[in-house]
Structure formats: structure tokens, C-alpha cells
Amino acid sequence: MTMYVHGYSDTEAGRLADQANTLADFIHTTVRFPAGSRVLEAGCGVGAQTVHLARNNPDVHFTSFDSSAESIEKAREKILQENLTNVRTEIADVYNLPYPAGSFDHVFVCFLLEHLADPNRALKGLKQLLKPNGSIMVVEGDHGSYYCHPKSDAADHAVQCLIEAQARKHGNSLIGRQLYPLLVKAGFNEVNVTPRMIYADSSKPGLVEGFTKKTFIAMVEGVKNEALTLRLSDEQKWNQGIADLYRATHEDGTFCYTFFQATAVRS
């Protein structure tokens, strides 16, 4: 796995929690597994999505792994705080997983593939862990789908800096649009991709605060030092871009972003 472009700070952990909580109705409303199922959550990070999965599926057994020991420790703390007993967390490498073939009924992947240099290899490995007719669900964003009003070249530039910074770490923040061909290439069947658009204006203050500000803009702000170090931007242009992103959270502003939710089956 490549280095996580957003870092492993407590601030980033908080952003991930805000993101998961804000998007819970968009991602987790329909994520239900049969009682007794064994589900593998790949790249669970700090457990922000894990707690929603486990809480909504109390009779399902989850194994949630991440390559970062620091993130897994935070995930375990979160799971303990939530009194969830149906989750086992482990440190593991998505390219070299320690589980026998056919170990799981379902796999859940959320915001992982964008950080991988070889998502096809990861998907093929995860497919081998599924039982025949087992399913996978993949949720990924696509920073190229963002737009805001008032339109701003400086805001677009700041977002492009994030896209470029992630690409230089061999990640792909435009991967949402590629889920269908990726899953087909990995050998999955019955691939179905649904775009899930998040739109925020002043009539939706919860989304303005939870998604536009605390999820998306916070994510862009988090790569400032890297953007400046890599000379992708300068201080003045960067600051203007961030200011213009916040301008879209004003009473007359709007913000839009699209996630992609894919399901597929192992034959």
C-alpha cells in the first residue's frame, strides 16, 4: 500500500469520523448482511466506517484490517467505546492477506482503492477470499466530480493540488469513475455501479457543515504543506483557493460531489 496522502494525525482521524457520520445515510442505509455472515472490511483505517457497519449488522461477524498499526489502535478504541462485540480488528497488508481462500461471505471496501498503486491486484486478492457467489461492495469518491458555486479557478486549483499530490504517491483520487472496469478486469460478475451525489446548499446546513466544510474542504486543507513543498501551488494562490471553497458554504453558495457505490459477485 502507498503512503496515505492525508496523514495519520488526530485531526485526520476526526475528519474521517465526521465524513463517516455525515455520509452514513448515503452509504450505510442499504448495507445489510444476512445474520451469521462473515464479512471482511478492507482498509478500515481508524474504524470510522466500521462502527456503522457493526452497529447496523449486530448478528454479522466482521474482520476489519488496515496496514497502519496506529490506525488499528484508534479503531479498537472506537469499537470499545461503542461496545461493539462483533468486530475483530487486525493489522494486515491488502496485497498479502493472511486469510484462507473462501473465508468470507462478503467483502466491504470503502475509500481504500484510491490510495493503492495497484487496485486490480488488491481486488483479485480480495476475490479469492470470497466464497462462491460471495459479494463485494466498493465505495469510492472522485475528486474530479466536485464543483461549487460561485465557480472559482482558485478553488479548482486547490482541489487539483490534492489530486496531483495523491497521484505522486501512486494513488488515484479519480478512481470512482473506474469502478466498473476495475471490478470486471478483476474477474467479478454482476457488476453494478450507482453514483451517489452529495449536494449541499444553505437549506441543508448539516451537509454544509458535515460534508462541505468538515469532510471535503478539510481534506483539501490537509495537503497544504505537501502542495507547497512540491511546488504545486504558492501560498497566495493556495489561500485564495481555500477561501473560495469556503465561499461556497455561504448562504448563496452550493457544493456538489459524487461518490460511486459498486456491487459485484464472485462466481
Beta-strand content bin: 15-25%
Largest sheet: number of strands, sense, barrel closure? 8 strands, mixed
Oligomeric description of these chains: single chain
The average pLDDT value, as a whole number, equals 93
CATH class, named Alpha Beta
**Amino-to-carboxy terminus distance:** 27 Å
CATH-derived topology? Rossmann fold
The secondary-structure class comes to: alpha/beta
What general form does the structure show?
A: globular
What string gives the helices and strands in order?
HHEHEHEEHEEHHEHHHE
- Count of separate structural domains: 1
CATH architecture: 3-Layer(aba) Sandwich
Rg over C-alpha atoms, rounded to the nearest angstrom: 18 Å
Unreliable segments of 5+ consecutive residues: none
Give the proportion of residues in helices: 40-55%
- CATH homologous superfamily identity: Vaccinia Virus protein VP39
* Tally of DSSP helical segments: 10
What is the number of strand segments? 8
What does this structure look like?
The protein has 267 residues and is of the alpha/beta class. It has a single domain (10-265), classed as Rossmann fold. The protein is built from ten helices and eight strands. Strands 1, 2, 3, 4, 5, 6, 7 and 8 form an eight-stranded mixed β-sheet that branches. The protein starts with 9 loop residues before the first helix and ends with a strand.
